[in-house]
């Protein structure tokens, strides 16, 4: 239909207003047919347009969808956020069209899992949605979600949080659904959890030149490392996430523990304000950071749940202390051994920063019984590192060196009766 209409219009030389109207009608019909087919096929919603206007008293957000979206709204405190949950949605508009302004100091949106997506509006203070509705587009092209936010006082916001009924469906789904597992791990196999940092609504860092998202870099590397490890006899590796979905930090730890992992390797590629700093870094857990760079990085990485609109559930201080104590006593030495093995592999082969083994309180490394490291492969804020992180040859080389490090670590553990 598209091709026929285009050829007809061309042959008329675009001279007739009538011909242009016919072409528009045909294209519209084709678009609607495509949308209808998408609905039948169960494709995600398409959010194809967005705009935001307003000031620090009232702010309006409008998002255009190809068809009617069903949504729910929830409020989270500490810090104040508004969460909009949606069915599976593809966000196809430029990020600048929904850049934070007015009442909102940060706006994130993206996939949570195969069936859901989320918009997280971090506010500059207590805010409520005075209006949240879906209405048909006047031109009949789809539907739009309209959100009108206005400032309120702290007591009113606290009441909104208190009186709402909400359990995070994505969190519940993860704990009740099948957990990723290595294929046919035999008795005695050395099981390794490979964790691709970030994912879904949490994009992570953004490349300085290519604007590549960290979540894409880490997943590509994690898949390559898992494939390589699984070629080694007696080793079974698996991914904590296999596609672009969000996992909370606690979910990542739980997945490793429930699969009886003997190692947990979390992969990242962060950004720094100092764009001249480059190279890999290996982090292990500690209740006190080794330096300011490590402390700042841990603070940013620990915000992953907040970015995705997760409620902050504070553990009792005695529980947190017990977890850290168990980690220190039972697994920290093994984690440090693995870190040293990785850095020995990288020596003269992969560039590292100064003092490449650092430590801080990373929540993703808190499994009390699984030796864990967080590996910063490089920095997407550095143009040279960014080139390497996207280079398949460099990735393959680094994956091989990491595999060698794991094999040496495993051999040492086995030799000591582990």
UniProtKB/TrEMBL annotation:
InterPro entries: AMIN_dom, MurNAc-LAA_cat, N-acetylmuramoyl_amidase_3. Residues 253-407 form the MurNAc-LAA domain. One of its GO terms (cellular component) is outer membrane-bounded periplasmic space. GO terms for biological process: peptidoglycan catabolic process. It catalyses: Hydrolyzes the link between N-acetylmuramoyl residues and L-amino acid residues in certain cell-wall glycopeptides. SMART domains: Ami_3 (SM00646). It comes from the Bacteria. Residues 1-41 form the signal peptide. GO terms for molecular function: N-acetylmuramoyl-L-alanine amidase activity. The keyword Hydrolase applies. Its EC number is 3.5.1.28. Keywords: Hydrolase, Signal. This is N-acetylmuramoyl-L-alanine amidase.
């Amino acid at each position: 239909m598209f091709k026929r209409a285009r050829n007809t219009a061309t042959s008329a030389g675009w001279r007739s207003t009538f011909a242009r109207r016919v072409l528009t009608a045909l294209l519209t019909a084709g678009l609607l047919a495509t949308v209808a087919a998408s609905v039948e096929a169960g494709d995600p919603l398409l959010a194809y347009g967005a705009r935001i206007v307003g000031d620090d008293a009232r702010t309006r957000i409008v998002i255009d969808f190809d068809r009617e979206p069903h949504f729910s709204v929830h409020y989270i405190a500490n810090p104040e956020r508004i969460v909009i949950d949606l069915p599976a949605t593809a966000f196809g508009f430029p990020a600048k069209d929904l850049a934070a302004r007015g009442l909102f100091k940060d706006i994130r949106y993206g996939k949570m899992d195969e069936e859901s997506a989320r918009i997280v509006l971090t506010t500059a203070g207590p805010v409520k949605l005075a209006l949240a509705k879906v209405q048909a587009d006047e031109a009949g092209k789809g539907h739009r979600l309209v959100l009108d936010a206005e400032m309120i006082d702290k007591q009113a916001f606290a009441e909104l949080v208190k009186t709402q009924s909400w359990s995070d469906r994505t969190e519940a789904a993860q704990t009740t659904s099948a957990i990723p597992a290595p294929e046919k791990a035999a008795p005695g196999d050395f099981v390794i959890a490979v964790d691709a940092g970030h994912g879904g609504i949490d994009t992570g860092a953004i490349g300085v030149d290519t604007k590549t998202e960290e979540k894409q870099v880490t997943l590509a590397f994690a898949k390559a490392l898992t494939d390589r490890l699984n070629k080694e006899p007696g080793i079974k590796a698996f991914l904590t996430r296999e596609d672009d979905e969000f996992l909370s930090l606690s979910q990542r730890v739980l997945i490793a523990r429930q699969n009886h992992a003997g190692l947990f390797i979390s992969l990242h590629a962060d950004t720094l304000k100092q764009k001249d700093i480059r190279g890999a870094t290996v982090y292990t857990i500690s209740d006190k950071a080794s330096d300011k760079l490590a402390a700042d990085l841990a603070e940013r990485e620990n915000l992953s749940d907040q970015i995705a609109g997760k409620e902050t559930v504070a553990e009792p201080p005695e529980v947190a202390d017990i977890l850290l104590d168990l980690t220190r006593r039972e697994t920290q030495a093994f984690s440090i051994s693995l870190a040293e093995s990785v850095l020995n592999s990288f020596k003269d082969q992969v560039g590292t920063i100064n003092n490449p083994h650092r430590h801080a309180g990373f929540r993703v490394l808190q499994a009390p019984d699984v030796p864990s490291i967080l590996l910063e492969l490089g920095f997407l804020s550095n143009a040279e590192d960014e080139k390497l992180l996207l280079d398949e040859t460099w990735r393959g080389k680094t994956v091989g060196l990491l595999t060698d490090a794991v094999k040496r670590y495993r051999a040492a553990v086995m030799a000591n009766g582990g």
